[in-house]
Amino acid sequence: MSPGENRWEPVIGLEIHVQLQTRTKMFCGCELEFGAEPNVHTCPVCLGHPGTLPVPNRQAINYALGVALALGCEIAPRSIFHRKNYFYPDLPKGYQISQYDIPLGAGGSLGEVRIHRVHLEEDAAKLSHVGESGRIHGSGTSRVDFNRGGTPLVEIVSEPDIRSGPQAREWLQLLRTTLRQLGVSDVNMEEGSLRCDANISIREAGTEALGTKTELKNMNSFRFIERGIAAEIERQVALVEGGGEVAQETLHFDPVSGSLTSLRSKEYAHDYRYLPEPDLVPLAPSEEQIEAARAALPELPEARRDRYAAELGLSPDDAAHLAFDAELGSFFERTSERAREADSKAVANWVTGELVRCSREAGFEHPAETKATPEIVAALADLVATRSINRKVGRQVLNRLVLEGGDPAAIVEAEGLGAVSGDDGALEAAVEKAIAAQPEAAEKVRAGETKAIGALIGFVMRETGGRADGGEVTRLIHEKLAPQPPVTD
Amino acid sequence: MRPMIDRDQVLHVARLARLHLEESEVERMAAELSGVLEHVDRIAGLDLDDVATTTHVVHLENVLRDDTPTPSLSPERALAGAPDPDQGSFRVPSPQA
Amino acid sequence: MSDVVELSLVEAAEAIRCGDLDPGEYASAWRQAAAGDALGAYLWRADEDAGPGTSESSSELAGIPVAVKDIFCIEDVPTTAGSRILEGYLPPYTATAVARLRAAGAGVLGKTNMDEFAMGSSNENSAYAPVLNPWDRDRVPGGSSGGSAAAVAGGLAPCAIGTDTGGSIRQPAALCGIVGLKPTYGAISRYGMIAFASSLDQCGPLTRTVADSALMLRVMEGRDPLDSTSTGIPGGVGLPAAERLDGLRLGVPRELAGEAEGIEPGVREVFERTLDVCRDLGAEVAETALPHAEHGISAYYVLAPAEASANLARYDGVRYGLRESASDLTEMYERTRAEGFGDEVKRRIMLGTYALSSGYYDAYYGQAQRVRTLIAEDFNRAFEDFDLLLTPTSPTVAFELGSRASDPLAMYMSDYCTVPMSLAGLPAISIPAGLAQPEGGGPELPVGLQVAGPAYSESRLLDAAHAIEQAVGFDGTPARGGAGDS
Fold this sequence. Notes:
Chain A is of the alpha+beta class. Chain A has helices at 4-7, 58-70, 165-182, 222-241, 287-295, 301-312, 316-324, 326-338, 344-361, 374-385, 391-404, 408-415, 426-437, 439-446, 453-463, 470-481, and strands at 8-19, 74-75, 82-85, 95-98, 105-106, 109-110, 113-122, 126-130, 141-145, 152-158, 194-204, 214-219, 250-254, 259-263, 275-276. In chain A, helix 8 (326-338) packs across helix 10, helix 9 (344-361) packs across helix 10 and helix 15 (453-463) packs across helix 16. Strand 9 (141-145) of chain A pairs antiparallel with strand 2 of chain B, so a sheet runs across the interface.
């Protein structure tokens, strides 16, 4: 934490656009397909031909209703669409059909952040620059592909309850997991089905009034969002502490250089001239519909976290980690399914503990990116559960699995890492050797000083190349050092 | 009498509407619009706070369509009539940043 | 056989259906008539057989060629909306109203001239050419469906379809001495009808008789899944048969008739005479009130341009239509739209953009929507005491070309009697009621009677109109200047 941050309180709100995974577009029957050849999924409606009219997609409305309910929103008994007017080549009608003063859902919360509103709208088409750098600057030409135009979007606007880049990232993860659970979107930031803009301002800690906010757009990964927000907070603090004033502007964060540049907006200080959409009649979900949608909600992350904590005895943090991170949660589920000997709690511990740590150390953002698949981790957990290897060996092997994948049992076999157990007498021999080599420690253990056992265990571990099963070693030591019953003749 | 809409406002509105006006048109437009606005302005002064607005004359709600695909245009058809088609896309001058 | 073009639509359809009339001969006669267009009524005429969409002669409109206002998209048929910005534009799809006509066996005779984007009351705002009134070629036919009206009145088409947003079917029908119907909002699908003001636009027939109008309405009305504001007419539409008006209560709103300013003496006289005809037919005729109708024009000229400013934003040179070359995108937009749109369209786009712009929305657009509510409530109240309402359709008879060009507001006032019904979404028909001289003298020109009813009352409306039509016995032939004269 930099010194300035104690005096200044960052105030951050997020605006998220989610592409819904319906089969067809919001207002026409063209199919949705990522990565198709340009303009193969268009029609007179989504091309904005004269005389065409929109008709809303029932499934998109259902999905949006699900999102609003999952976020705890009040559902408007009657909401309408509005036209948001501006000129841009990716906007075929010269207006976007959206919702303005009466959105589908309002109020609500997710985690610690309150939700301002949830509404439906249509996505713009894809505009790409024909030029060297790929950025749209200066003269030259651009191309428009209308496949994407008309994709149903849900816009989620949070209250400015977020206070840092890391918090924004975590909350966005939670939101993303929630949307994944709902099955309404594939929420893939790289492909653009989840997009996030941030509104950032600062104020003196302890005050209520909001400062001038800037808008940070076009951040297409969680990492960039976290860093971009942090960079902007730093910039504003430095600016204000230097006697300057924050100007309202839109900024772009370059993750490579870490710098923020001002975007001269396409129509600065937009006057969108909203008017109620005359071609669409109001949405009025009935009480029954709303209740049915609510009943159909799947287990959401916070409920899942509570369940994991209760059923698996995980700490709230670990339970949250599994429940709030969609990929980690499903990784855990799949691993748990495949594990035959290790129970869910053990698997959870492996996943949230060792696996996350090993992945990070190996330079991966997330366990799901490593070569250690759920099948592999399950096998490893089983080996430990059956005491074929001890935990320390397990960790060692995991480091390799994360980088190379493979079969844990085979690695153990090949490297001779199998646990030294009590079966073939080797362990017993090692224990006796330890006791003989460390008589003082042995005496102390006999006398009841349990801490002294550490030295003996350590000796055994060295003797066995670290492969002894710790529990077994301890048991044997106690057995050997137990007071001898008197020999009776 | 002061016109209801002056030259600056005309130019601002023309920009919002993406309409280029010749200099001679600006004056004429200001005068014509002012004339109409004077008449229309009668309703601006009415006290109608208690009256609901009519956004639709039809009393319909929830008119929706199933999420079932319908045939799209072929790209050739979609681009037929495009002023500047290029490699399957619609080409335009680049927007200024 | 008498000249087939003299037959009414109902007669011709019947004759074709029972085999007395050869559809090919009928279509050919009309194509020939249309080819003699000296009124500027057509922007495009079908070359080959304006033939039926289906070969089944049992269909309701089998073999009937229809003139279609150039505001309706027809696949691969030039469609301009009377504008340069769509010069050369060929739609990739067909409007539902036209598709339904074709499904009933009708064919497209041609696309008729119109005020650009339906903005106008004289057809002088067409980017291509004005249309001339067959009754007097120095005068306007009315607008914006001027081409359709002139074609039917001038013997260039047996029937036509047009659109009505503030009076654009009814007023030209009145000025040309024919029947023009604007149905209840939602009765006919707007899909494929180039939008001017979405909450007001409606498709409707222009015909020589009320019965013809009913026949076309029956075919076109219906719910369309491609238009979520469409409702059709619950219960459908019957063919009119009434000969009398016994027991019918007819109201005459004082704000739109009697005391209303701007109604020419000649128009007033014909109107009063027609009220007497109604009484003779057994109707009770009495005065009523639509207290907020006086604000109709103000509300309309905020709402319609506002919606139009958004509807016309798509004409930007990106995907179809005109594009002017330019060095950057903004210039391309501005020059394309400056070149492509005529003066009246620009005026209305400016007016609409202004009304919606920041700071003005509530004073203009919001207020206009409230006035709209009040007008609708006025009608509801009036219809508690009356079955139908009567007004003159237009305050004046056809005026001279160019006589209102320099005064947009004067032009807007032509819609005074028709706009309130549009704002309330109610059905209204104009039928010829007689002839009158314009104020200041001149030839005798048609006067239209407007009959309006509650929502979805088309059957009763058409019945009453039919009875009045029979009693009035208007001779539909223009006094001079038939269609084919050079």
